[in-house]
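Entry type: protein chain
Record version: 2
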Amino acid sequence: MNTNKSDVSVLTNSEVMRKYFVYIIGVLLSCSFIVKDGHQYRQVRHNNFAPGERFVYRAHYLGFNGGEGVITLDNDLHSVNGRDCYKVDVKGKTIGMASWFYHVEDLWRSYIDTGAITTQKFHRDIEEGKNYKLTETTTFDHRNKKAKLEQEKKGKRKVEEFDLKEYPQDMISGYYYLRTIDFNSKKPGDIIAMNAVYEDTVYDFKIKYLGKEVLKTKIGRVNTFALSPIMPDNKLFDGGDAITFWVSDDKNRVPLEVKAKMFIAAVRIELIEYSGLKYPFNFAKK
């Protein structure tokens, strides 16, 4: 086949354009993994939750309604460490007779990286009993694997830096990370592991997948996945499998109920109200 100069020019230009196109696509994809300091993040693909979610939970202890917790995913994204983040507030308080004996009014707040689903900043504002107050903020430097804890408790201020493991999770961001897990690919007994942070302590947190169950709840009978955190020996919970919780077997993967066997008594926490879900619940057929 004969190829004239115009054909060569067209082929050459086409090849150049293809290379440029591939290069541009590569740059665009890279931009979703890095921040201004050059740190590369993992990309956790998910479509399980959306801004505007709100869940209300009630805690039962010794047969009484002891507390209430509200989880709210803010409508807006927030920039932290140069990354877009979800802001999630968890507010907890004692209610009913329990509030007569012991006052609790807590705020926990997490800024969760929208791409990596890891914590960028964590805050607690705790008020319990007559005298106990705590204010705490932890900021995370993923590039250098460092965190800075600023804490004020009982009038004393503490500032401390400590080392991190990769993709740390605070107590809220870990819950959202779990919602991205494909439990349908798991078998009973499989372990889900994550790096967890509480105050200035970093530890390995493991959760055992127990299988599928139908759970009777305040909102109806729901198909669920059952899970159990593997607890170390401690003076609060009765055994390594003392806690079981259930998340909805659907795209939402919302925690519906928690049961904990404590040395003093059993505690149950249940979802009583919700709004802003991205998908309908997978209710069980009668």
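Comment: The chain is about 15% helix and 50% strand.
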